[in-house]
Amino acid sequence: QGVDVTYLLLTTGEAGIQDKSPEETGPLRAQEQKRACAKVGVDDLRILDFSDGVLEYSIELRKKIAEVIRDVKPTVLVLTEWGLEVPWGLNHADHRVAGLAAVDAVRDAGNKWLFTDLTDENGVQL
């Protein structure tokens, strides 16, 4: 529909398939995401390198998300559910952490006094 979309994944999903090793699963998941993005017209897929299945809420996580927000400057964000319970049962620990960190990173990205080292090559704060 003519909308630019950036899709940000915080992990490579390497721990997501029980009968495949993380070394096999990580690249497989990345390829799945690339194909899915191509089908719906998403050109900007970004995958961070946090460990799958053990994602921890941290300043580093918030900073990485805020960096993408400052870079993309989106008008709308769609975040994962960060509550403990979801309609289909208990929410995955990574999803809870990702959602809460993303909510906080939105606020962080708008605060020029946080993460002042996130600048572009011309020294402009992203």
Number of spatially distinct domains: 1
| Percentage of β-strand residues | 5-15%
**Ends distance:** 27 Å
Q: Helical element count?
A: 3
Cα Rg: 16 Å
Compute the number of strand runs: 4
CATH superfamily: LmbE-like
The CATH class is identified as Alpha Beta
Record the SSE blueprint.
Layout: E1 6-11, H1 22-40, E2 44-50, H2 59-72, E3 85-86, E4 89-90, H3 93-109
Parallel strand pairs: 1-2
Antiparallel strand pairs: 3-4
Helix pairs in contact: 2-3
Overview in brief:
The chain is of the alpha+beta class.
Describe this entry's structure for a reader.
With 126 residues, this protein is of the alpha+beta class. It has a single domain (6-109), classed as Rossmann fold (3-Layer(aba) Sandwich). 40% of the residues lie in helices and 13% in strands. Strands 1-2 form a two-stranded parallel ribbon. α1 links the parallel β1 (6-11) and β2 (44-50).
Defining traits:
globular, 40% helix, alpha+beta, 126 residues, Rossmann fold, 3 helices, two-stranded antiparallel sheet, two-stranded parallel ribbon
